[in-house]
Specification:
signal, SH3 type barrels, SH3 domain-containing protein, about 45% strand, Cell_Wall_Dynamics_Protein, SH3-like_dom_sf, about 0% helix, five-stranded antiparallel beta sheet, 43 strands, 5 domains, mainly beta
Length: about 525
């Protein structure tokens, strides 16, 4: 890179740690809100995905207490506006803004499910360490998302807050409701909660056929007048009086589905309020008869059962294939930075990072970037203002400040540091320090803002005269003189992610020529 011009800032999307969750199935009917609803993130980091399920690609992430603009709900996923595009987040890890989710005053809770798994962590992806039964009292220590942390046989365990309620709740006398709409309960038993979410304590329950006085709607919850106080019920299990229950819908093409949860209850009806009649395990194939709301009706050991659609997926479906899955030239590389452009002549680039985990490629980051002023080079030459194409290893990381946390070898730039671009010098395409003392006639100053942070792309390692020098991945948002650049935030994120033990490589190519790799 030489004589870089700095331009307007770009935006990018970074995905780092994952948040536990299970994907929902395509075909869940989306519930649109009359207007966007504001929610806050409750997880430390929450993935934003391209579709309503964990089988969809990650397009970025949001952090705890970040405010989200929710457009609609699809199963257990919220559709949101994310950096100008549509994204989806698990509803388990967000809550209506301004609400809090502590356990109720009492630390003693009662199990409402016939059998409830106790897990080693706050999520269905954690192993079951035992179980508790209906009516059993639990000592709750704290709450994490929609899970309660409990003392279980002398060790720490976690139970879903959906299946416990504060012990000793009583029903207050009934008073006349305010003006409202009348709805009818469709579930056999439906919890009434103190707030709009399963993380709120149950303050009582209503039964099938009971009429409710609905005041307003908050997300997928109805605010009701309940025995003289305010309560909330899930809109999935009530309907406007006088209407009929929507008929069950058959699933899409395939009737065979696969369980994605470690253990999944099979219930006697379409709701968590129905008794468990057994369970199925991860990878088990199910014969689905029809769909009712967010539940699948299945054939289970010769009888009818119901499973939550959140934890099964069509057997024919698979995670979207990543571009790196088809690459044949990666060798032992377990980290890949892919820089692509629509054609040779454009300076705008798309930067993606991928990492192989347990033998499978996972996408980590997607960001906007820039190339040389004239785009990609067919045959790179010194001073042509074009970025080289090809697959290269990654060299030394550098910066004008202290190491930001990269595992790569890191060199802090000083005012005397230069990169020699004199094709006639024996030091061509190497990092040196001034003064030149006749060793070169041309060199690029390293102590400039573009090199606040970056790393060397190991291009022209043979140092062939005139083939190009000083090819870096660095900070910049307009165009370069032959390097690749993105925002400082993204450069630092990538530096922190890169691990020399994973043999990282960078591939630069027009989209039309990716089949070379």
């Amino acid at each position: 890179m030489k004589k870089l011009m700095v331009g307007m800032a770009l935006t990018a999307t970074l995905a780092t740690a994952v948040t536990p969750g299970f994907g929902s199935i395509g075909g869940n009917q989306e519930k649109a809100y009359a207007a966007t609803v504001t929610y806050k993130v409750t997880a430390s980091k929450l993935n934003v995905r391209s579709g309503a399920g964990t089988n969809y690609g990650i397009i970025g992430s949001v952090v705890k207490d970040q405010t989200l603009s929710v457009v609609s709900k699809s199963g257990s996923w919220y559709k949101i506006n994310y950096n100008g595009r549509t994204g989806y987040v698990s509803s388990d890890y967000v809550q209506s803004s301004g609400t809090t989710a502590p356990p109720a005053e009492s630390t003693t809770y009662t199990v409402t499910a016939s059998t409830l798994n106790v897990r080693s962590g706050a999520g269905t992806n954690y192993a079951s360490i035992g179980s508790v039964t209906k009516g059993q009292k639990l000592s709750v220590m704290s709450k994490s998302g929609s899970w309660y942390k409990i003392n279980y046989n002398g060790r720490t365990g976690y139970v879903s807050s959906d299946y416990v309620q504060a012990s000793g709740t009583t029903t207050a006398p009934t008073t006349s409701p305010a003006e409202s709409t009348t709805y009818t309960v469709t579930a056999s038993t439906l919890n009434v909660r103190s707030g709009a979410g399963t993380n709120y304590a149950s303050i009582g329950s209503v039964t099938k056929g009971q009429k409710l006085s609905v005041v307003s709607k908050s997300g997928s919850w109805y605010k009701i007048n309940y025995n003289g106080r305010t309560g909330y019920v899930s809109s999935d299990y009530v309907q406007a009086s006088g209407t009929t229950t929507a008929p069950t819908t058959p699933p899409a093409e395939s009737t065979t589905y696969t369980v994605t949860a470690s253990t999944l209850n099979v219930r006697s009806g379409a709701g968590t309020n129905y008794a468990s009649i057994g369970s199925v395990t991860k990878g088990q194939k199910l014969s689905v008869v029809s769909k009712s709301g967010s539940w699948y009706k299945i054939n289970y050991n010769g009888r009818t059962g119901y499973v939550s659609s959140d934890y099964v997926q069509a057997s024919a479906t698979a995670s979207p294939k990543l571009v790196v899955d088809s690459f044949k030239t990666l060798g032992n590389a377990q980290q890949v930075i892919l820089v692509t452009a629509d054609n040779y002549d454009t300076k705008s680039a798309k930067i993606q990072t991928f990492e192989k985990v347990d033998g499978k490629w996972k996408q980590v980051l997607t960001a906007n970037g820039v190339l040389g002023q004239k785009g990609f080079a067919l045959a790179k030459k010194e001073g042509d203002m074009e970025s080289p194409t090809g697959k290269y290893t990654i060299g030394t990381a550098f910066g004008r400040y202290a190491n930001p946390g990269t595992k790569l070898p890191y060199r802090k730039i000083t005012s005397n540091d230069v990169w020699v671009d004199d094709s006639k010098s024996s030091l061509y395409n190497t990092w040196q320090q001034k003064p030149a003392n006749g060793r070169w006639t041309s060199a690029e100053n390293m102590d400039i803002p573009a090199y606040d942070y970056g790393f060397v792309i190991n291009y022209n390692e043979s140092r062939t005269p005139g083939k190009g020098s000083a090819i870096f991945f660095h900070v910049g948002t307009n165009y370069t003189a032959g390097c690749t650049a993105t925002s400082k935030e993204q450069v630092v994120s990538i530096l922190k992610w890169l691990n020399p033990e994973k043999n990282p490589v960078i591939i630069q190519s027009p989209v039309s020529e990716l089949d070379k790799y």
